[in-house]
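hey so i finally got around to running the thing on that chain from the lab meeting. sorry it took forever, my laptop kept dying and i had to restart like 3 times. anyway pasting the input first so we r on the same page abt which one it is
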Amino acid sequence: MQEFFRITEFSTKQLKELDLFVEVISPPIGPNNVGHFINLHLNVTARQAVTNLIAYEDSNALDKIYPIMVQEIDGVFKTTFLTLISTIGIAPQFVLNFVADFQDGRRGNVVAIRGERHQPISHQSSLTPILVDGLPRSGTTILMSYLLNHPAIVGKREYPYEFRLATYWAHLFMLMTKVNNSKPGDKNWQATQNNNAVGAPTYFNFEETYLSEWFGNSFTEKAASFCISAIEDNYRILKEKEDKPISRYFCEKFPDNKYKYFCELFPKVISILIVRDIRDVFCSVRSFNQKRGYAGFGVEKFKSEANYLINLGKSQKANLLRRMNNSRNIEYHIVKYEEFVRDPVKIVQRIYKDIGLDEVEISSCMGSNHDHVTNKKDWGIERWRQDMSVELQRVALEHHQDLFKEFGYPTE
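ok and heres what got predicted. didnt touch it at all, straight out
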């Protein structure tokens, strides 16, 4: 019988001020042979009721889980949770942390589950994805325009190179295999009532245990096969349109944090992260927004320019951390924007060589879209010295000096 994953350890937390006690009923320590999900059953006893749990892998929230029952006896609350947690997309060596939101507004870790997951679904495919990622205004568009010169790499050669065909199918795979842990009335429960809403299957949750083996095994495998087949069919059509019959790689920009689902669908994923000094990224974003006449690139979500600048650094670090903690089937390549724009042909030929491709004649495909660049003087390198206020320069150094030192960016 196939072993999908193995639970190796539980660790529960004790919050003395709440007299907290956690009882883990399932999953048991040892192998799981049912499917691609964890059957979670636990009781949280404390002097406050728990309104919900949030499951995390690293810093990524996987799901919000609501209790099925709350009992109170002499001021002590026993909150029972019974749910399913999908293992699709989690790392082979995983730690799932469950954080409780208490009725009085407090929050705390209550249990961690460690385990080992066996190989992801990874059906065989004739194509290997190349995913180009980076902060906005860090050179991803220009890099795409050069990478697509190679006859073995197919992608839509059209500015701004954001044809996320495979990303759509990876997203659909995520939705189809996600367990529904929402409470009645939430948007997932109303998905079949709204033609514009897509969510996890509302009929499959902890109450429908008789469907568990089918959903977590047979259905998941079929969903993966369907999405891979759709990706290959779509790119076969694009190969013909782009006249690239020998292509064995496809290239997309900004995969919207769907890396782990690409890793489920493909035996190998190539990730190219382009890194730029976040101070120059900030200045380029501000300049491009002024040029367009409206705020974009997430600026509108922040109350101040300083907060946006701080968040850029956090996003850069998160991208790097994902690569440092890589335990999946991803081959990572890091490109410095400053090196790339000064000699794009050299850098792209190096990328070709690193992924096992021959050198080819290279030119940019951006054509008349070079107005995409907001500062043509040395490609905007160290533009922050003139374009950024002294106060914002101080904020950048205070929060992200470690990032500047790691990549050799000036700190004076």
